[in-house]
Specification:
Beta-Lactamase, 7 helices, 2 domains, alpha+beta, 11% strand, 59% helix
């Protein structure tokens, strides 16, 4: 007998419900993580595009200086003034540092302008502006994750920035987006996922319980119990009464009815045979032909009684 056959119907259905819940939870979590990654990538793509736009402003003023329309000092001053006023996504801003690194312009923290920011670190110990310079030296541009406080707040939160070098002036221009909102959206989605999973679990458990009860009511017992009963009946063991069930339309009830009827038929056959062997002894004093004829008649009657009883039980009802 296989392992599944040893497990009750209720537990099998419970395992099926558990598997379904795990699949639902896995798919929901996978979609949630995929959505979080997609939102993060969208924000990174947006900040990269805005830095490229600001980089284009620097290039435009540099071209004017090269063409002699304005001096380089005036071009730098005008470029810094224009970029310092740029905002996107509400309050996102730009900064510019040089390759030292020294802060050239910070749009929301002007107190940093002109300061050496080499030792400026985030709460995790990263030298932010040194990392920015290294990214530009290595690849010319790139993303960097770190912790930085939001405007008007001193509490650092996770931020991803894109920095891009402007070689003619030795500057690094960058901007970043705070991704704590992405994490907040992800946490909110997880709550919905867990709540939906709990609801689905309750619904599936209720349906599984109802189905399990209906199956057991129709069978009258566990399939393993029925399999243990039927071989005994097939071998002629009709002495053991089956477990009673209150459901009169179950398989077990039908088996019990069949066992009872067959047992009555067998008992009737045996009673007929007993009566045939128990005739009075004075029959023996009759003539031998008559006695022989009488015994043949008794056997014939008994046989007819047996066959008649079996036919009455086995014949289809019309």
């Amino acid at each position: 007998m296989s392992l599944l056959h040893r497990i009750t119907v209720s537990r099998r259905l419970g395992g099926l419900v558990g598997l379904a819940v795990l699949l639902i939870l896995s798919i929901s979590l996978g979609l949630s993580y995929s959505e979080r990654n997609m939102l993060t990538q969208e924000r990174q793509s947006a900040v990269r595009q805005t830095v490229e736009v600001a980089h284009g402003i620097l290039a435009n003023y540099h071209d004017q200086a090269v063409q002699g329309a304005i001096s380089q000092e005036q071009a730098q001053r005008s470029a810094l003034q224009a970029i310092s006023k740029l905002r996107y996504s509400g309050s996102e801003y730009f900064w510019i540092n040089d390759m030292h690194p020294r802060m050239v312009m910070h749009a929301v923290r002007p107190q940093l302008d002109g300061q050496d920011v080499t030792s400026n670190r985030d709460p995790s110990g990263r030298q932010l502006f040194v990392d920015f310079v290294n990214i530009v030296k290595k690849d010319g541009a790139g993303f960097h994750r770190y912790l930085w406080p939001k405007p008007g707040s001193d509490e650092p939160v996770e931020k991803v920035s894109y920095v891009m070098g402007f070689e003619p002036w030795g500057w690094v221009i960058g901007s970043g987006v705070y991704i704590d909102t992405v994490h907040a959206a992800f946490a909110s989605r997880l709550k919905w996922v867990l709540g939906g999973t709990v609801l689905a679990t309750l619904v599936l458990l209720g349906a599984g319980l109802a189905i399990s009860r209906s199956i057991l009511q129709q069978l009258g017992a566990e399939p393993s119990a029925l399999l243990a009963i039927t071989p005994k009946m097939a071998q002629g063991d009709l002495s053991t009464a089956l477990t009673a069930t209150s459901h009169t339309h179950s398989v077990l009830w039908g088996l019990e009815e069949m066992r009872t009827n067959v047992a009555h038929i067998v008992q009737g056959v045996r009673s007929a045979q007993t009566r045939g062997h128990g005739q009075p002894r004075n029959c023996a004093r009759q003539s031998r032909p008559v006695a022989a004829h009488g015994r043949a008649s008794q056997r014939s009657g008994a046989d007819c009684g047996v066959h008649g009883a079996i036919w009455q039980f086995c014949a289809p009802k019309r």
